[in-house]
Design goal:
- There is one protein chain.
- This protein is of the alpha+beta class.
- It has 6 helices and 9 strands; from the N terminus they run E-H-H-H-H-H-H-E-E-E-E-E-E-E-E.
- The strands form 2 sheets. It has a 5-stranded mixed sheet with strand order 3-9-8-5-6, with no helix packed on it. Strands 1-7-4-2 form a 4-stranded antiparallel sheet, with no helix packed on it.
- Helix 5 (68-78) runs antiparallel to helix 6.
- The longest helix is centred in the first third of the chain and has 14 residues, at 23-36.
């Protein structure tokens, strides 16, 4: 599934957006590298473990900026939370603790359809107090064991009304591992709008609001 951009990334945020793109997966690679290989080769050797050139470059810049020892400490403290990590290396501004907002509406277009239907699930939300870097998390739970979830990072929102569209293709895919199926029934979709990583224990992480919507797969 994919989500539309609620707004363009601000240019003045510089390395913030590329840093967030390191993601939980990238931090996990670095953590494993530290635990299994060590940091003998310095910043460039450690960051070369990141497969993408852009990710490796951002990693190297952050490591050089704070120093190798501090960089390793931040990775270990981050608990795979990319937002907290990017705040700690000073690539993203720290979110304010008075960040506030709420979800106003969740609608599905269409509201129902057979498997293979492409659903556009719209979520409108209002920001009352400016937010820092964070994510919009979507979790879909259907009949049986059907479950899909994904977080979509953003660089924060100024006060105002916003809308995002989650695009979901319900075409079954038996070649996937595990196979993807969409049996008939009602599907619950939960949206979380968060500053920082949703449900993180780190400072400044706030769940602004959490609401449910639904759509139906017919026979």
């Amino acid at each position: 599934m994919s989500m539309s951009e609620p707004r363009l990334v601000k240019e003045e945020l510089g390395l913030c957006s590329p840093c967030i793109q390191l993601s939980e997966q990238g931090l996990n690679i670095l953590l494993n590298e530290i635990l299994n290989v060590g940091v003998v080769g310095g910043c460039s050797k450690l960051c070369s473990a990141i497969p993408s050139k852009a990710g490796s470059t951002v990693c190297d810049l952050a490591c050089i900026a704070v120093g190798l020892k501090e960089f390793v400490s931040i990775i270990e403290k981050a608990d795979l939370d990319p937002f907290y990590f990017c705040e700690q290396v000073k690539f993203c501004p720290v979110g304010k603790d008075d960040a506030a907002g709420q979800i106003m509406a969740i609608t599905s277009d269409p509201t129902s359809g057979p498997a293979a239907t492409k659903f556009a699930i719209n979520m409108q939300f209002q920001v009352a107090n400016e937010t820092g870097v964070g994510e919009i998390h979507a979790a879909i739970k259907g009949p049986g064991a059907t479950s899909i979830s994904q977080g979509f990072p953003n660089t924060g929102f100024k006060p105002g009304m916003y809308q995002v569209t989650l695009n979901l293709d319900t075409t079954p895919d038996q070649t996937a591992d595990p196979p993807v199926d969409f049996p008939a029934g009602v599907y619950d979709i939960k949206f979380d709008v968060c500053q920082g990583e949703c449900y993180s224990k780190h400072p400044h992480s706030i769940v602004l609001d959490s609401q449910h919507g639904n759509f139906t797969i017919t026979h």
